[in-house]
């Protein structure tokens, strides 16, 4: 246990020195504030409180930004150690590869949590300041925060896995960008194409829920949108999300980080320094 | 007590290349052994197998009685890799604190360890700003953590200046006196000659020689060279008196003879002392012995 925390403390220090804490926090706060400001205008007559609308916008932001930040922080985790030549010495220490990855995960997750909390917190403050009666949205904001952390953990774990498979930082960076594009952007486009071509038939009702649950980014979106009061404000895939019970998207969100870190450990174990 | 290291009939293959063939050796507590061999002879491979970093095909390796790479073995072995590297963003002290924590020791000892390798003044600076010699000292400091029973050092003195090398071997002597077995590889034969108990020569993956320098010298039976410098004007006289001598540059005569003949030959030369300016007796150097063993195998 102490070895995991020692690794986490050192990794946090390295990430801090490499300005990852500043970059991640800065990006989250900036984007969240822009959304809060932009979303403030048309809410008056929609009949929902301003914070719930902000949470809906933040969900769409988080689906893109959280995986991106997580992959950017994690792609170097193993490949960087291989490239620098620090791995052989580390592996002669009485610490298991699983413990090393867990230590890195704790450090990176702490940074991500900090960035997400500050970003969402800033957006919430703006909403509360302009519409004091918005406190009912606090619960969905809290839900968004912890589900963002789970989403981040999934992509951190996947990043470690790619990092171990690529063994070179440049290759790992390429893999990470490709994964982000596929999982976050292309996957949804493919699903949209499916819905349009199928026209609400068998495929949409049967395959779509499974496809949404199978992708952690979509499970995150479905979970937050179907849990929040502002589903109507989100539209799009949100309406399809209603067909999925809340526990299923929550289970997908909770299961993915475990799978990702197990896959990363398996890939890391295959490296002979 | 189980010996720190026992290897029997170790074989390692990389695809079709046999990196190590049938290597057997053992190290006792407090023994300092030097592993010599040309580039690609299998030194680093053997070390990585001992550390459990890479698997081996055949043979048994036991580290303090445990399987290499097992948690028990790793807890008792310290390693200094060739070209040791650290994260450039950490300071020397932070790096050592991390390694102390990984071995379950108090991180407060970091300053003391860095002091011991002469890095106390730079402990608070980032490793990215260190010279190669300083990084090597950080690497050395981390091997001192937790009183290891076996030290595996791959080219430990590369990048160190002569004074640092001497300090390094002094440090090894203290560790060996405490019972730590040391296996080190080096290209600098002269320092190995003076500061180790046993020499292991690897060639093409085979252990071609093993023993103290004296044993190896006797086994190689290489000739002793007498270098005779004639007094002014006595060159011709001497070369007539010592016909076996080969003329070298500056008029010196080189006479080679076996170890057993040495005294008798010196006596003959000494009888001509009136015509001699100087006499040097050169025993075969470690370089000679080393090339003798590694070449014989190459043929």
How are the secondary structure elements laid out?
The complex is a heterodimer of chains A (273) and B (299).
Chain A: H1 2-17, H2 20-39, H3 50-74, H4 79-84, H5 87-91, H6 97-130, H7 138-166, H8 169-198, H9 202-214, H10 216-227, H11 231-234, H12 237-241, H13 246-269
Helix pairs in contact in A: 1-6, 2-3, 2-6, 3-6, 3-7, 3-8, 3-10, 6-7, 6-13, 7-8, 7-10, 7-13, 8-9, 9-10, 10-13
Chain B: E1 5-14, E2 17-27, E3 32-36, H1 43-50, E4 58-63, H2 71-76, E5 77-80, H3 92-102, H4 110-116, H5 132-143, E6 150-154, H6 162-177, E7 181-185, H7 189-195, E8 198-203, E9 206-211, H8 213-220, E10 224-230, H9 235-241, E11 246-247, E12 253-257, H10 262-271, E13 276-282, H11 286-298
Parallel strand pairs in B: 3-7, 3-8, 5-6, 6-7
Antiparallel strand pairs in B: 1-2, 1-4, 8-9, 10-12, 10-13, 11-12
Helix pairs in contact in B: 3-4, 3-5, 8-11
Walk me through this protein's architecture.
The complex is a heterodimer of chains A (273) and B (299). Chain A is mainly α and 273 residues long. Chain A has one domain (2-269). Chain A has 13 helices and no strands. Chain A starts with a helix and ends with a helix. Chain B is of the alpha/beta class and 299 residues long. Chain B folds into two domains: 5-218, P-loop containing nucleotide triphosphate hydrolases (Rossmann fold), CATH 3.40.50.300; 223-283, Alpha-Beta Plaits (2-Layer Sandwich), CATH 3.30.70. In chain B, 35% of the residues lie in helices and 26% in strands. Chain B has eleven helices and 13 strands. In chain B, the strands form three sheets. Chain B has a six-stranded mixed β-sheet with strand order 5-6-7-3-8-9, with helices on both faces. In chain B, strands 11-12-10-13 form a four-stranded antiparallel β-sheet. The longest helix of chain B has 16 residues, at 162-177. The model of chain B has no long low-confidence stretch (mean pLDDT 88). The chains are: A mainly alpha (273), B alpha/beta (299).
